[in-house]
Amino acid sequence: MMSKVHVLDHPLIKHKLTFLRKSETGPKEFRELTNEISTLMAYEVTRSLSTQEVTIETPLEKTKAEVIAGKKLAVVPILRAGLGMLDGILKLIPTARVGHIGLYRDPETLEPVEYYCKLPTDLEERELIVVDPMLATGGSAAAALSFIKERNPLKVQFMCLVAAPEGIEKLRQNHPEVEIFTAAVDDKLNEKAYILPGLGDAGDRLYGTR
Ligand code: PRP
Ligand code: URA
pTM (2 decimals)? Predict the structure, then answer.
């Protein structure tokens, strides 16, 4: 099995991503665009949710209609930059549960270390969307997905704004069953593992920390 990659290249997403990439876009606009793109992407990422039939009454008669089945899904941003996508997704699925996972890379071993992890209970009955704007080497996403999968969720999808081919390959090797949703697949990584052309450091641009 190979991770399926969905490139969500709707014209509105492409247009907003262009402004997100531009170096003159400041944190206020960067945050707004990140949320707007995330809302548009959430529409597609949730397409595979199953529905169940319920009986309702319209003002005229009883009828059968559909609602989303099962337990509320969970959105899991990877700290810190993943938080920038959260509100945009919750706009479409406001009852979703939210988990947080924080990782840093040990400078000596280069292994990702989990520094925070709080996930909803009953993960084995929930579908999950793990979110991070950037999939660069794929190290952070692969580690987050490994921690999350220890809790046996029903299904996991990964959503990012910009993916590098290297990161896609890493997820394909480590988590082949996880579908990847991205707004763009860029060219490559530079020597510092930044995505080219990319958009720079997503966390710093969201929060104005540089
Ligand atoms: C960024 C980004 C991803 C990671 C991607 O986070 O948000 O989590 O880098 O790189 P990778 O695919 O090579 O692991 P960063 O480590 O800068 O932390 P931050 O979100 O706290 O800014
Ligand atoms: N993390 C980022 O925020 N941007 C990149 O280009 C790579 C990793």
Answer: 0.96
